[in-house]
Amino acid sequence: MRFHAALSEHESSLVAVDELIESVRASGVEADVAFVFVSRDHVDQADEIAERLWLRLDPQALVGVSAEGVIGPAREVERAPGMAVLVGRMPGVRIHPFHVPPEEFADVLADHALLAERLGGGPETRAVVALGDPFSTPTNRLLPAIDEALPGVPVVGGMASAGQGPGQNVLFRNDRIYTQGLVGLSLSGPGLEVQTVVSQGCRPFGKTYVVTKAHDNVIEQLGGRPALAALRDAVMDLSEADRQLLARGLFVGRAISEYRESFGRGDFLVRTVMNVDNETGVVEVGDYVRVGQTVQFQVRDAATATEDLSLMLATVAEQPAAPAGGLLFSCNGRGTRLFDAPCHDVDAARAALPATPVAGFFAAGELGPVGRRNFIHGHTASFALFRGK
User: Fold this and answer.
1) Do 277 and 359 belong together in one domain?
2) Domain containing 272 — which CATH number?
3) What is the DSSP letter of 29?
4) At a CB cut-off of 8 Å and minimum separation 6, what does 40 contact?
């Protein structure tokens, strides 16, 4: 199993795609699969880009998406012309590309067997890479349905970020171009291992609490007390420097499993605190909550995000064999919007996995598993790392 990643920053779409094709050919990697990511500068010539990649690289499957920024093997290009590709030789792996248009979502959400068939999933499926248009993909309903249709199969990917409204994004599947729905591919076979890394970039503060009263996305009581009172206690335990971070945002982590005596990194699904009501004492969050869930308040900053990503990638680096290749889906709120220097996430990947070619894009929502369930995230770096067994 071999991979190659390439990046072009040329302003001309056709020159850029030819540079990528030349790089792939020079690498000697015969592409079974190709992933392509283009900035909004190249959207108008997406048809030609798809046709050239499809005909000249001759992969079994090609999928891709337009984005605000793209990520190459050694550089992140933000809000500027960029085109990146990751190609892989994956012998013995069954690759099934798909496109689900908006009009088909009702059917596949109602019929899990149909959904598994549509995605090409089965008992040997190791992962689904999914790239969606955020204006026409019901992600919050689709991911739980995939969890039911393909239990334990990770869904990794991201939502297109080039467009500011419906119809402005571009999705690639083989030599076809779409502006709506979901594209992607499933990867199946006993000789494949797909490892995921989902770095939410937060650290908890205060105690863990059990939700004792709630409705919809509103936490009314934590541990039998008003939610706001619990939050104030947690904030009082913070240092002055950490309290200053709350001005940039407050988050809450929901434990994926309540059946644990202690919780640590990776045990929480992080969501934004949307509102705090001083009169009623309730806390509104960006997710549905229910009584009995365990939660803990969280804080995020550049240093915390760096630490979290480095620690999670270090666990990958400890394994005997490096991944053959990887995809990186980074939130468009990361990059230079969060960190002082550019290329933060791909530099972290290169430091931990110097032999692993990586490409990806800045997403308007990142897909990845926490525990054995799949979610859409924000401010997250999500990786799919491929190995041959």
Assistant:
1) no
2) 2.40.30
3) P
4) 66, 67, 68, 162, 163
Residue 275 gets the label, from left (phi > 0), alpha (psi -120 to 50) or beta, of beta
Q: Is 183 helix (H, G, I), strand (E, B) or coil?
A: strand
212: domain range? 202-299
Q: Look up residue 50 and give its two tokens.
A: 């798809």
The mean pLDDT value for 233-242 works out to: 86
Total domains present in the chain: 2
Report d(CA 376, CA 159) in Å as an integer.
9
pLDDT digits (tens, 9 = 90+) for 270-311: 999 999 999 999 999 988 999 999 999 988 888 889 998 999
Residues in the chain: 389
Give every strand in the sheet of 373-377, ordered side by side. Answer: 94-100, 182-188, 125-132, 155-159, 366-370, 373-377
- Shared-domain flag, residues 310 and 285: no
Q: Please write the tens of the pLDDT for every residue from 357-369.
A: 999 999 999 999 9
Q: What is the pLDDT of residues 293-302, one digit of tens each?
A: 999 998 888 8
Q: Closest Cα partner for 16 from 78, 85, 86, 83?
A: 83
Q: Quick one: 322 and 287 in the same domain?
A: no
34-54 pLDDT tens trace:
999 999 999 999 999 999 999
Provide the token pair at 346.
Answer: 């791909």
| Global pTM value | 0.92
Q: Are residues 64 and 174 in the same domain?
A: yes
End-to-end Cα, the chain, rounded Å: 9
Q: Are residues 295 and 210 in the same domain?
A: yes
Of 278, 299, 320, the last residue of a domain is 299
- Of 251, 274, 299, at which residue does a domain stop? 299
Question: Beta partners for 141?
Answer: none
Residue type, 343: C
The torsion defined by the Cα of 204, 143, 172 and 62, in degrees rounded to 10, comes to 90
User: Could you tell me if 215 and 158 lie in one domain?
Assistant: no
Bridging pattern class, strands 325-331 and 294-300 = unpaired
